[in-house]
Every structure is written in C-alpha cells, then in structure tokens.
Write a structure and sequence with these properties.
Distance between the termini: 44 Å
Radius of gyration: 18 Å
CATH architecture: Orthogonal Bundle
CATH class: Mainly Alpha
CATH topology: ABC transporter involved in vitamin B12 uptake, BtuC
Shape: globular
Number of strands: 0
Number of helices: 12
Order of helices and strands: HHHHHHHHHHHH
Largest sheet: none
Helix content: over 70%
Structural class: mainly alpha
Strand content: under 5%
Length: about 260
C-alpha cells in the first residue's frame, strides 16, 4: 500500500475511535447543533492560525474551546432559544473565518479541503495530532465516564450525588471541540458532525448499555472508514464524503433489518 493510503487509514481509524464514545454522548444529549456550531467555528480557527502564524490545528482547538465556553455562558440567558443562538454563532463564525482568509492577500489555502476534508492528504504530523490528542481525549473521557453518564441521564439526580453538572457539560463540549479540530482535515467542517453522529445512531439500534453503544459506534465508524477509502480509491470519489456516505448506508441497513432493542 502507498504511504498516503496507510496514513489515511490510520487517521480514519483514529477518528473512529474518538467519534464512537463522544458521538454517543452527542446522541444522548441531542448535541447535533452544538457539533455543527463547533465545526463551523473551526474554519475561523484556521484563519486565525494562519494570521497569527501558529499551527492551524492548535488554533482550531483553541477557537473551538473558546466558542464552547461562550455557548455555555450564553445559554444561561433565556432571551434567545438555544437553536437560534447556535444558528447565529455557527454561521457568524464560518462567515468571519472566510472573510479573514480573504483579507490575507499573502496567504492561499485550499478552502475545499477544510470544508469537505482531504483524507488522502494526511501527513505524519496530522497523525501525531490525531493519535496524541486522541489519547488525551480518551484518557479524560474514560476517567470521567461515570460522572458524564450520570449528568447525561438525569442532571437533578447527578447534582444530588454531588456531581458538578455544569463542569461535566463544559468538559464534554471541550472534548468535542478538540476532536472536531483534529478531525476537520479528515471529513471537513461541513460534515464532521455526521461522522460523530451517524455511527452512534446506528449503534443505538443494537445496544443494551451505554458502554456497548460506544463500542459498537467505534466499530461502525471503523467500517465506514474502510469502505469509504475503498470507494474513494476505486471510484475516485472524495474520501471524506465517501466515508460519511458509507456510514449513512450502514445506518439505513441496520435500521431496516434490526428490531429495536428493549
């Protein structure tokens, strides 16, 4: 196998490993719009990273983390509904990122790669970010798994048990921001939420416990990566969207053939 294909496979499997458990929390907490907002804000992070001459992935992590904290603080105010607030911030961040890029005459970047991903262009440095950052994310996630799960199932009971619900909500969004930033080069800002949500939604059909759902989501994500790369290699289709299409096909197939678990 060519080196670029091996890099693409390793990157995709690394993202699937991260997307499984985090995507499960997105499904349980109904955070699809949060994921889209953080993904759109990642492009602003790319623009700021180029402007400030720092690593684009680090800039995406920082911008996503700041936006996640801003979203949490703004949700305390009830003047606007959550979906309205998320829509405003998502499109504003994306548009501001595009404007900043356009204003930098000396910089030329491939916006299509950031919007739709370029899995076959993954480098060794990208792999270090994915697997290194992913190891940190998974370590934090599983060390706080029970608290995050309790806060997800019932916030009132979690508070009675002494769990800081606001902290758990902030931690989950920060982890999502990190994963979206390091995965953005894989499938792009516009469809990263799909890779987080679809395998988890597919796994939910088969699962009897939260841990089982997270594990199945990893498996379905990995299968999507393998099938998507095969489709891209043999049919010359864009790799990131091909992965998401394969994930969607799995979702349709599982939901068509498997009865709901009780």
């Amino acid at each position: 196998m060519d080196d670029f294909l091996i890099n693409a496979l390793l990157a995709g499997l690394g993202i699937a490993l991260l997307a499984g458990p985090l995507g499960s929390f997105m499904v349980w907490r109904r955070l699809a719009y949060f994921g889209d907002t953080l993904a759109h804000a990642s492009l602003l992070g790319v623009a700021l990273g180029l402007w400030l001459a720092i690593n684009p992935i680090l800039a995406m992590v920082l911008s996503g983390a700041m936006l996640a904290l801003l979203l949490l603080s703004l949700q305390r105010y009830k003047q606007l509904a959550s979906d309205t607030l998320l829509g405003i911030m998502a499109h504003s961040a994306l548009s501001l990122g595009l404007v900043v890029v356009a204003l930098m005459d000396s910089v030329r970047i491939d916006l299509m790669a950031y919007l739709f991903g370029d899995l076959l262009a993954v480098t060794q440095q990208d792999l270090l970010w994915i697997w290194g950052g992913g190891a940190v994310v998974l370590a934090v996630l599983f060390s706080q798994w029970n608290k995050l799960l309790s806060a997800t199932v019932n916030e009132q009971i979690a508070e009675v048990e002494g769990i800081n619900v606001d902290l758990m909500r902030a931690l989950l969004l920060l982890l999502l921001a990190v994963v979206i930033a390091i995965a953005m080069k894989i499938v792009g800002a516009l469809i990263i939420s799909s890779l987080l949500l679809i395998p988890a939604a597919t796994a939910r059909r088969l699962s009897r416990s939260p841990e089982q759902m997270a594990a199945y989501a990893v498996v379905f994500g990995a299968i999507s990566v393998l099938l998507g790369l095969c489709l891209s290699w043999y049919q010359d289709t864009p790799a990131g969207p091909s992965v998401v299409v394969c994930a969607a096909l799995q979702f349709v197939l599982i939901h068509s053939l498997v009865k709901v678990q009780k």
